[in-house]
């Protein structure tokens, strides 16, 4: 298995090099976490972990992503709509 774990969606500020930075969560228009394209360049263009997961599976491994339940703080701050609601 290869699992992407712990704050993979956190955009770091300045030259900080840790997810504990004062950065913010990278989210889509519905408030769902998406990979930070600065840390995950292959995710640019809203393709997510598609390229990474394909390569991992080519190696014969399974791929997983750790996601916390609930609504992200960034989505609350940005007041994003929830997909499927009016």
TrEMBL record:
InterPro entries: Aldolase_TIM (IPR013785), GH (IPR017853). Transmembrane segments: none annotated. This is Alpha-galactosidase. It comes from Nymphaea colorata. The lineage of its organism: Eukaryota, Viridiplantae, Streptophyta, Embryophyta, Tracheophyta.
